Amino acid sequence: MTEPMQSLGSAAPRTEFTRFNALRHGVLSRYIVLPWEDPNEYQAILAALVAEHTPNGPTEEHLVEEIAGIIWRKRRLRLAEAAAHRRGLRGTESPYEETVKVALVHLDATGQTERVVDAIRATAIGTEAEMADLAGDEAMTRRALELLGSQRNDAYEVALATLREDTQDWWADTLAQGPDEMEENQEPATADVKGLRRFLEDEVLPWFENRKKELTNRPLIREQAFGESLKADKLERLGRYEVHLDRKLERMLAMLFRLKELRQGSQPA
């Protein structure tokens, strides 16, 4: 007597049914994905795990779902860690002078620096361009000093016109400083040859030296800034939570593999 023909459903591979059930009817899936997260990304992880482990029965399906949930939470931890870095990095932008001094302490870095965003985000190409621009600016300044040392009657005017526009603006701001804006024992600036020479030698040329050292060591400053942005105390709880997830992942995998071994051992040869 001919065996009854199997239905189309029973003829389909068991793996396909299991995969469908895990994706469509997962008990945990509806709770693991937060409202602002992409459920398709989680389903992709779950589908990949189902394809890898081919769970057989609700118990194995549950273990695979647990593993997917652990991986999803570990992904969430990475996002939290990156967010903590960014917030910490934002905090290093204000006290940038201290960051640079610490990073370049072995070079005896001194003076003040002002451009945290440039130093943190600059590329090698940008650094090269800025070094070239800085060299041109310094050449103008030294030419102005030569003119100030000449015997020309209009030495002050010609030297001032030789300077770059932003240096001229800096000098104008210095001349406009009131007594309450000046540092202790600072002499008032005077719009003459002596005053401009003192400004260029005491303020502008040292700024060039500090800026060149800063540009040359940008990778070191980047490293210092990112290191300071890492607030270890804030990440400690995240680290403990990740250890918990890792241990749970190990347990879930061990249980899944053991269950598969038991199932295979119970099958008749």
Give a structural overview.
- This protein is an all-alpha fold.
- It folds into 2 domains: 10-90 and 231-266, no CATH class; 117-216, no CATH class.
- The protein has 13 helices and no strands.
- It has helices spanning 8-11, 14-24, 29-32, 39-53, 58-93, 96-103, 116-121, 124-148, 155-162, 165-175, 193-216, 218-229, 232-266.
- Helix 8 runs antiparallel to helix 11 (193-216).
- The chain is rod-shaped and about 110 Å long.
Please sum up the structure shown.
The chain is an all-alpha fold and 269 residues long. It has 2 domains: 10-90 and 231-266, no CATH class; 117-216, no CATH class. The protein has helices spanning 8-11, 14-24, 29-32, 39-53, 58-93, 96-103, 116-121, 124-148, 155-162, 165-175, 193-216, 218-229, 232-266.
Percent helix range: over 70%
Number of strands: 0
* Overall tally of structural domains: 2
What is the 3D shape? rod-shaped
Structural class: mainly alpha
Order of helices and strands: HHHHHHHHHHHHH
Note the beta-strand portion.
Answer: under 5%
Q: How big is the Rg?
A: 34 Å
Query: Can you count the helices?
Result: 13
Span between termini: 27 Å
Uncertain spans, ≥5 residues at pLDDT below 50? 1-20, 109-123
> Biggest sheet, in brief?
none
Average pLDDT level: 76
Brief descriptors of the model:
2 domains; 13 helices; disordered N terminus; 269 residues
Write the layout of secondary structure elements.
Blueprint: H1 8-11, H2 14-24, H3 29-32, H4 39-53, H5 58-93, H6 96-103, H7 116-121, H8 124-148, H9 155-162, H10 165-175, H11 193-216, H12 218-229, H13 232-266
Helix pairs in contact: 2-4, 4-5, 5-12, 5-13, 6-12, 8-9, 8-11
